[in-house]
Specification:
It is a single chain. This protein is mainly α. It has one domain (10-45). The chain contains 2 helices and no strands. The termini are far apart.
């Protein structure tokens, strides 16, 4: 499994965390799931 380190602005990180909790519930691993889903969606649009 690959590893990519990414830095987000504080505001974007806050929005991502709140949206992840809304959608997935805030369990361990949900943030990774949300980011993977976002990247897959972006790749599919190209």
């Amino acid at each position: 499994m690959g590893c990519i380190c990414v830095e987000f602005s504080d505001e974007l990180e806050k929005q991502l965390r709140f949206k992840t909790i809304e959608r997935f519930g805030g369990k361990k691993g949900d943030l990774i799931h949300a980011i993977e889903e976002a990247v897959r969606t972006w790749i599919a649009q190209e």
